[in-house]
Amino acid sequence: MNIEGLIGASIRYGTPLLFATVGEIITERAGVLNLGLEGLMLMGAFTGFVTAYSTGSLWLAFFLAMVVGALFALIHAFMSITLKVNQVVSGLALTMLGSGLSGILGRAYVGRPAVMFQPVAIPGLADIPVVGPAFFKQDPLVYVGYVLTFFLAWFIFKTKAGLTLRAVGEEPAAADARGINVFWVRYLATLVGGALTAAGGAYLSLAATSMWMENMTAGRGWIAIALVIFAAWDPIKAMLGSYLFGFIMSLQFRLQATGEVHVSANLLLMLPYLVTLISMILFSLSENFRKRIGAPSALGVPYSREEKT
Amino acid sequence: MSSTLLEVRGIVKRFPGVLALNGVNFDLKEGEVHTLLGENGAGKTTLMNIIFGLYKADEGEILFRGKRVHIKSPYHALQLGIGMVQQHFTLVPSFTVTENVSLGTKDPPNKVAARVKEISEEFGLEVDPYAKIWQLSVGERQRVEIIKLLYAGAKVVILDEPTAVLTPQETEALFKAVRKMTAQGTGVIFISHKLNEVMEISDRVTVLRKGTVVGTLKRGEFDKNKLAQMMVGREVVMEIEREKAKPGDLVIKVDDVYAKSDKGHLALNGISFEIRAGEILGIAGVAGNGQRELAEVITGLRKVENGRVEFMGRDITNSSVIERILAGIAYIPQDRKGVALSPNLSVAENLFLRRKEKKIWFNKSVIYEHARRYIDEYKIKTPSPATAVKYLSGGNMQKVVIAREFSLEPRLIIAVHPTRGLDVASMEFVYRSLIKARDEGVAVLLLAGELYEIFNLSDRVGVIYEGKIVGYTTPDPSPENVEKIGLMMAGVAV
Ligand SMILES: Nc1ncnc2c1ncn2[C@@H]1O[C@H](COP(=O)(O)OP(=O)(O)OP(=O)(O)O)[C@@H](O)[C@H]1O
Ligand SMILES: [Mg+2]
User: Fold this and answer.
1) With a 6 A CB cut-off, is B38 part of the ligand 1 pocket?
2) Does the model's pTM come out above 0.80?
3) What is the value of ipTM here, to two decimals?
């Protein structure tokens, strides 16, 4: 197996994680914790597939998946921002809702092939040795992932709107006192996060494969939640983390496929989670890391005005 | 020329179980400092929160420059020209000063930074525009809050107990800035429990008691005793009579202790002292010279790098916090919301925490009965024992802490700023409580910023400088002694 092939595969495996992770970063930067990523991804994958299957239009499918993701996230936003219910509970409910709903509605579509995104070489860049084939002979959604990551990094850290977003997640009272509508910012961040997460799910049924399977996300939503911490709420680091996990996943499939190494398939399936767990432990052991990690201080805490905290 | 900036009429505000404000009238003229004075829980902060749009009044009206306004939010207030520095700051700790100021404005960062510099020079509010908030001292943070208001062009500036957290020098600087503001026509509403300050800065004083205005006095009409009496409704003794201490057995011995601060440098540099039963040792010093670390080392919250702590003849250098509590060490920390209390638990539960009962479960009625006793004894103002502590006024939170710690029947009390934010009546109460404890044979370590507090309570005075006791003196408020302490506090050997 050549190196560019391996990198290329890692990126493809990593892209759904990347969408979901940066989506959750946006949501959490505003102080909202959404544990419903798995459900959102499944709804995205399902919506994407059904649209592609019935219309043949991949971009429409991708777009509609995001719309459905945003609508689903709206449930979480309403529950956690307006009703102020426990965000963990609301997020878990969303996961169950998403996987259940997509499972039932998708039953009729299992096993039917649809269209899928094909690799497009970027003229010029694709000819660079190694780097070219690895990074620039991919399907269009991978490129969307590149652009999105750098855009979001710039947005969060370099723009006024990004400053507002972070302020809302850090000190909502301070933002409120400056005339920033905390509720509105949190709603928007949750919706955008939901849309991006669903886009990650849609990647699975529109680019990675061209079919729909029940629970086809196979726990990627949970990995993305861990990756947010791993990346310290920074999109660029989220990109590195996602591709790293993509690498581990592709490795796992490759080992399984070649059958050269005789390891239990279950053990291999565990690998990404094991790595998540271990890396989290290692990271939090380092005191320095914990101090710098920069988790939004108001994460998971509903905001209301007429109350001293 | 001094026209009225702001006027409130007949403000009523109810909270579940409390009538916080009962028809309050108040007004502020251009260029004046109007002080709001009142006991803990009198409703000062509530009134200000209504003017700043944080709370909605149940009844009454607000006029700004003669026009009736409905202030819907802090933002709206700020747009009108009303700004407030709250008791608890509203700054984003991970942001720079400039970023905090620019929040919610459309101005480009470099313009904001330049303007911040201008304002800070004009008003003597020194602060680095590019420093991150978490790196700043409390005093500096407060300056940022004020700069934020001035940046927004506030004509009414509300300062809610700004000096509670300041050193005397910082207070002086703040007053200079306040005078510059009033010279430009800005009106300042000032809240403080320190009558000396109130005398120094106020043009008018309005006294609030239990949500009703007792009276408004002009400069020249008020003095300290009169104000105290109006506030409390009776004469207040500001200097407590006390007998000479009768020191007994050695209670605590701190021997050559070294410890690090949160930032990792040595905050205690070989500190040594002893306190005997029935004696109050007051430690004077400029904030940040190891006071907090000293308290934490004795309570077991901070690791000792080197040296020894002995309590009642036992080595407790490495004992756990709970062992020390059980042994009889009580702690009144300076951070009442984070360290001392659990804001979301009820008053009763907070009073019951840290009890050394052996039973595993309790009947609710036991906890409530216990609570009622202390609520009565310490006159804690709370709608009910079941109210969450976070809804109490600042001073009443402190009373909960003090009631609980005293209920432990301690042998040693470590009190850090025990009367910060307390009204004069409560202050008197705390003083009496501490002296009573002393007379019953408790050893007291008093770490306070205010010299008068140290003089009022201590039997001996030690001065801390860079993590070390640099000298001892008597609690004698004569100018010579004050000067001596001042020199020692500045690190000049005497
Ligand atoms: N959000 C709230 N919910 C319920 N009760 C409240 C709330 N805010 C204030 N109160 C109650 O209203 C009364 C007035 O409180 P306020 O904070 O205005 O007092 P204060 O005069 O500022 O006292 P202090 O000097 O201690 O700061 C108190 O009894 C307090 O418990
Ligand atoms: Mg108050």
Assistant:
1) yes
2) no
3) 0.79
